[in-house]
Design goal:
24 helices, 33 strands, about 35% helix, GMP Synthetase, Chain A, domain 3, four-stranded mixed beta sheet, 3 domains, alpha/beta, Rossmann fold
């Protein structure tokens, strides 16, 4: 039965399940810090509603900006606001700049913005009367912003009815009951967590809120919160494939028995492997912000063989009970079984419209159906239509669940390099993030050869151009003639066709970069495996105590090694990298570097190159710590980061500056982007540190009583000295950048 009054529903739950846990506030490790029963939930909603009405002077129809991290307070404020007829506008703490904040708040006529600093006022508030509750669900409740393809994102107006109808569909689809507990990991400013929380509330299920997803703590978060289901993006699925050890430690404490996956394109192989590895079913769903979340989903009750077949062909399942889904051609004609066209949807969960944007609203609907911008087809199985997603017509790039605007990135690239004539940004397939940023470039007529122009752009990009956020930096570039770019009759580039014209192999990796011809920086990908396998073979020949099978090694690193090297012939690079990778195994961490390096003889031909690189290996199990409380509106520039490092406040930078092996500490050579959207603690920066020249004598002796980090660097020095190599570098991330810059903003 559809809920027609949110507050009445909360009141009923408070009466029927007064002492049952309703809302749990948790830290990033999954520890429960505060529990609200359903009775306390209603009391808090009453208090927050009064606070909004009386303290903030907000009334029905007013708009409220929310600049809050994931928290129980986020949900309490949202539900109280909607119950009193107040519209909420969640702001993206991760990507929104000050200008974007202003744009969103001005467009929505937001009278008030609530941030973390305002919550003490709420805690101290004493309720003296009842809030003004607004019956019904037809009023606008939530405005979320699309990334769009321009600098001006569109505001999606969702009514409370839109949200509740979709939530009811999600509840029925995943068979959520009052015995369930939902774990919130994805941002609450995203429609995914918003709707899943409402679906849980409709079912009378408990909701556990964590500050965010943590790769290394994921299974602990599930276990400690005793969650029965959660919602993830494909990047999380990819990350957890390397976390079997963490899963094994905690699996007997788990109650999780289903996981929903969506929000960006899935990789069927990863989904299948996840389910086999952890014996937990993943249910793919499809939807958009404009539809209040899910439009289709793979049912829970399918036979195993059919379910596996649907996963293999990247099916997005069957329509939700509320959704009328069709595929249409470019003329709007409805297509039959097996015919590829644009997915369209009609139903009560579809948005009210784009805020103050009649032109966009006109383009978004045809014959009463919302045009999703996605391509697909359907086929009939046992009398049911199952849809298969083929790709997007719309141009948004979804990198690890983060929406990126191609037009915005193109504009920034034109600012970075004056030799660019035209640039077209497209999303390219990536095993971890789903999509990576690729740039197709037409150069101006210049005296320089194309190869030189490309090298200069690569260097600019890896020097962290200030106009680009780290995760916006293209990882692939390709130079083409203007005549090769497919255009419409009106001169607009056909991005979908552009991606199909050129294979991924035609692009150059931006993160394979040379600086002054002295060093290289790149992330290992599948195409680099032959070189790594050569290093691996040599490594096993020299370091018998750490022998691993090639298959086991690939399972551990999962194409996620980060390496710096002088050239691809530098075998010393391979030794140190593989040594560090192996030592990431718990059992091997108990061994001292001294025990592994008593005999530094290679017993083979001297490797080529004049540098040995000491790196912290970024295997797929690596996950930066989450943001601490606070708010960073924009990423710091390289000069600002340099000033922070010079302040002496960063522990990692200070560690490298300290003396090791009796030699002076390292000096900073370059700041580089790591292009990881989730790496918030370092704000997207890497440090390349150069240690002093290694003397020929006396012999360097690693200190086995020092920390493993010190032993790693001193071992690299001893290794380089033995080989007659003079230079040692370290590649690391700052540790406290987020805390520092958040305190200044």
């Amino acid at each position: 039965m559809a809920i027609t009054n949110l507050y009445q529903h909360i009141t009923r739950l408070a009466q029927e399940h007064s002492q049952k846990p309703a809302l749990l506030s948790c830290n990033n490790e999954g520890d429960i810090e505060k529990i609200y029963t359903f009775q306390e939930l209603q009391q808090e909603i009453d208090k927050v509603g009064c606070w909004l009405n009386q303290e903030l002077s907000l009334k029905e129809g007013d708009t409220l900006g929310l600049a809050l991290p994931n928290s129980a307070e986020f949900l309490l404020i949202s539900w109280a606001a909607w119950s009193t007829g107040i519209i909420t506008v969640p702001l993206d703490l991760r990507r929104d700049t000050a200008e974007q904040y202003e744009y969103k708040l001005n467009l929505t006529n937001a009278r008030v913005k609530i941030s973390q600093q305002d919550l003490p006022s709420l805690s101290a508030f004493h309720q003296v009367s009842s809030p003004h509750w607004v019956p019904g669900v037809s009023q606008t409740a939530l405005i979320l912003f699309t990334s769009g393809t321009t600098a001006a994102p569109k505001g999606v107006e969702l009514t409370l009815e839109n949200l509740l109808i979709n939530a009811q569909g999600v509840k029925d689809w995943l068979e959520i009951t009052d015995q369930d507990r939902f774990l919130v990991l994805l941002p609450l400013y995203h429609v995914n967590s918003t709707t899943f929380c409402l679906a849980s509330l409709l079912a009378g299920a408990s909701i556990a809120v964590c500050p965010g997803y943590s790769n290394s703590q994921f299974w602990q978060q599930l276990a400690k919160t005793q969650s029965t289901f959660t919602s993830i993006v494909p990047t999380i699925c990819y990350d957890q494939l390397s976390q079997q050890e963490e899963f094994s430690k905690i699996k007997t404490d788990l109650k999780i028995h289903r996981i929903q996956i969506g929000s960006s394109p899935v990789v069927p192989h990863d989904v299948k492997k996840f389910m086999q590895q952890f014996s937990i079913p993943l249910y793919q769903g499809y939807g958009q912000t404009e539809t209040a979340l899910r439009v289709t989903g793979i049912p829970l009750d399918l036979p195993k063989d059919l379910s596996e077949k649907l996963v293999e062909e990247n099916s997005i399942g069957k329509p939700m009970s509320w959704a009328d889904v069709q595929t249409v051609d470019t003329q709007g004609n409805v297509l039959g079984e097996g015919k590829e066209g644009e997915l369209t949807v009609k139903g009560l969960a579809v948005m009210k419209g784009y805020l103050e944007n009649p032109e966009a609203n006109k383009d978004a609907f045809k014959n009463g159906y919302f045009l999703t911008g996605d391509l697909g087809y359907w086929r009939l199985i046992n009398g049911v239509r199952y849809f298969i997603l083929k790709g997007r017509i719309k141009e948004i790039i979804i990198k690890g669940g983060v929406n990126l605007s191609p037009v915005s990135i193109e504009s920034k690239l034109n600012q970075i390099n004056e030799n660019i004539d035209q640039v077209y940004v497209v999303g390219l397939p990536d095993p971890r993030y789903g999509e990576e940023v690729g740039a197709v470039i037409c150069w101006k007529n210049a005296s320089k050869p194309v190869s030189q122009l490309e090298a200069e752009l690569k260097y600019q990009l890896t020097s962290l151009a200030e106009t680009l956020a780290p995760f916006e930096v293209p990882q692939y570039i390709m130079s083409v003639e203007k005549s090769q770019v497919p255009l419409t009759p009106t001169g607009k580039v056909q991005r979908t066709l552009l991606k199909t014209l050129f294979s991924l192999g035609a692009f150059q990796q931006v993160n394979l970069i040379a600086s002054n011809g002295e060093w290289r920086f790149f992330r290992l990908r599948a195409s680099d495996r032959s070189y790594v396998k050569e290093c691996f073979t040599l490594f096993n020949y020299c370091w018998q105590p750490l022998t691993l099978s090639w298959e086991t090694f690939l399972e551990v690193v999962n194409n996620g090694i980060f390496i710096i090297g002088a050239d691809l012939q530098n075998k010393a690079l391979g030794f140190i990298a593989l040594l560090r990778t192996s030592l990431s195994e718990t059992e091997l961490c108990r061994l001292s570097y001294r025990a592994l390096t008593d005999d530094l003889s290679l017993r083979t031909n001297q490797p080529q190159g004049n540098k040995v690189i000491c790196v912290a290996i970024g295997v797929s199990s690596y996950q930066p710590q989450p943001r601490s409380p606070g708010e960073v509106i924009s990423f710091p520039t390289p000069s600002e980061m340099q000033e922070y490092l010079n302040s002496g406040l960063d522990l990692v930078y200070n560690f490298h500056k300290k003396s090791k092996a009796g030699l002076p500490g390292a000096e900073l050579i370059a700041l580089l982007p790591n292009s990881r959207p989730e790496d918030t603690m370092s704000l997207g920066y890497n440090m390349l540190m150069k240690y002093p020249l290694i003397p020929k004598a006396p012999a360097i002796e690693p200190n086995e009583n020092a920390s493993l980090s010190v032993q790693l660097i001193e071992t690299a020095m001893a290794f380089a000295q033995k080989l007659g190599i003079a230079e040692v570098y370290a590649f690391s991330r700052p540790a406290g950048a987020y805390q520092y810059f958040s305190s200044k903003q």
